[in-house]
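Support reply, case 0932

Customer input (verbatim):
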Amino acid sequence: MAMMTVPDDLIGCISRSSVVLPQGTIIDYQSRVDLVAQPVLMTRPTLVLVRSGIKKFTSAPSAETRLAPAGSLIAFRSGSHLMSEFRAEDDSYQSFVISFERSFLKLAIGMPSEFTKEPPRSRVAANLSSDQWEQLHKMPATIETLRSETEKEFRLREFIVLAMSDPVIRQMFYHEVADWGASIEHRISTVLNAHSISPLRVADLALLCGMSLASFKRYFQDIFNTSPGDWLHRTRLEHAYRLAARNEMSTREICAASGYKDVSSFIRAFSQRFGKTPRAIARGQPAK
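Our regenerated output:
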């Protein structure tokens, strides 16, 4: 199944309406059928307001499954990769999906005044007052009705501040902007460290770096003296070898944990690289 990128694949395609601004995107999403096991990549910091139905998602790499009923606010960091499902109630699942450009997020909240350890990749908010909930749920629809671009931007800023009333979401947003002014090499290295064994394509990594695919490939070659595709292939196979050597996982589990989708292709690539299958390595046979 093809991976869905959010917000791009939702805009004007499977949404009721969309507001696309330079600062971010608001998507009014509704479905009358249940969606099962759709792989999703959040290319920007994103908030999801569940209006009806139940949102279910499993985040990578933790494989933790979360449920978010109607009335929930979910936050995702850019680069979050998940399996997403929802269940319709009263004939439909409805949500507002609000994605922010990282540059705008930095302008809206400034540099962190507080910064702790790396926050989670996703969060179902639980620390907002009833007044804050009410304001949050009214705001996306309000922004849709505004004509002034300046007013829309101000409302988006207000929405961000309200969401940051939850301390974990606050840390997630701070983490998003903390390294945005860093060098291109640092930006690429940060994305690679976070996603090298996720089942993402080179084009997805370029998106997460805020670069075109051509620019990403050119900078990558200059910095690492290899292509991003070759680097990913080597890194994922080396990770798979370490997992196989522990003899704690099946070949299928090693395949999934190393960023591969097809077991047969994975075994073939592994055998070509190491001269042995993952099971042979697990049994103690050394690589050739």
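We compared this against your earlier run and they match. Two observations from our side: The chain has a mean pLDDT of 82. Residues 228-246 form the longest helix (19 residues). Please reopen the case if you see a mismatch on your end.
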